[in-house]
Structure formats: C-alpha cells, structure tokens
Amino acid sequence: MINTTEQNQQQALDHLEDVWLFGYGSLIFKVDFPILEQRPASISGWSRRFWQASHDHRGTPEKPGRVVTLIEEPGNICQGMAYRVTPDTFAHLDHREKNGYLRFFAPLSFTDAPEHVPAEALVYVAGPDNAAFLGDAPLQDIAQQIASSHGPSGANADYLLQLDDALKTMGAIDTHVAELAAQVRALL
Ligand code: BEZ
Predict the structure, then answer these.
(1) Model pTM?
(2) Catalytic: which of 97, 115, 120, 179?
(3) 3-state DSSP helix/strand/coil percent for the chain, to nearest 5?
(4) What is the residue-wise DSSP string for 92-131?
(5) Is the CB of residue 54 less than 8 Å from the CB of residue 64?
(6) Residues whose CB is less than 8 angstroms from the CB of residue 2 and which lie 6 or more positions away in sequence, other chains included
(7) Fewer Cβ within 10 Å of end Cβ, the chain: N or C?
(8) Which atom of ligand 1 is nearest to the CA of 21?
(9) What is the pLDDT of residues 126-155, one digit of tens each?
C-alpha cells in the first residue's frame, strides 16, 4: 500500500501558478516555507481536534503525542490562516506532514473579505481511517498525554500552547484548543 506522502504527490499541481493552502495547526505557527501572501481564513463544516497521534514530531512510537486533525461537523466554522504558495512548496509539506494526512481542495473564506467569492484551498486532513487516528477521549486524558509527550520536533505541550497563543492573537475562538491549553498549563 502506498503511503500518504506518495498519495499526496500523485495530485498534479504543476499546471497552477499558485495555490492557496489552509493551515489550522502547526502551519499557523511554524511557517518554514516561502509564501507569496497570507490571510486569515476559515473553512466551513469542519472542527479542529487533537485526535491524531504523533509518532514522529511531538511524540515517539513508544509514547505518541497528540496533534490536530479536522473532523467533519456540519455548521461549524474552523478558523485558521491561508497562505498563497507556489506548487513546489508541497514537496516539502507532503514530507513534513507525512503521518496519515491527505490533502484535498476545500472552499475557503477570507476572514478580512467574507463577501468575496470563496477561493479553493488545499487542506491536510488525517481521516478516521488512517492508522494514527486516535479519536476522542476525555479532555483530561488528552491533556495528560500532551503534557507528558515529547518528540524530535519538541514538547507536545509547546505545539498546543503555540497554537492556542496564535489563535488568540488572530482573534480566533476554538474552545477545544483553549480548554486543553488551560488544562495543560495547570499540569506543567
Ligand atoms: C495544518 O496546520 O493545517 C496542518 C495540520 C496537520 C497536518 C498538516 C497541516
């Protein structure tokens, strides 16, 4: 079976001059790729959840951490950051986000110009059928796992707290992230 990086690289993008990418997790606070433009944005029908295991960045195979993915939830709006990038950027991102995330185009709304015709943006989602999907758990268990996990990219708690800070700086409300961040701050 081919891995998600190979699956993602089968999507032809080279015919495009530029592509919008929607970031809702580490792409909000770790921008290690060249961008042409960035704008706060949202996608509709999805919720951000710490439901995906991280064995390679914020945890280890023996002690996985938890990172975000998107869960389908009709009526919900997920706020994040959109980046206009050149298609070659995805070679780097497909490798960085290799642990079960598939990318696809979704309609995007810009927060600063909601009346505009929505653009389409690529978004990485790790669905419930991927091997690293953990799903829901009591919030205090998720907080405990995040507070105690570390991986090659650093502490899992730093990932959560940087995301929480970045969302608050943008004025984006996400109660799942904010409540987890409060619990993890109390545990540290
Ligand atoms: C993001 O920040 O959009 C993102 C989260 C998880 C994997 C890939 C991208």
Answers:
(1) 0.94
(2) 97
(3) 30, 35, 35
(4) HHHHHT-SS-EEEEEEEEETT-TTSPPEEEEEEE--TTST
(5) yes
(6) none
(7) N
(8) 3
(9) 999 999 999 999 999 999 999 999 999 999
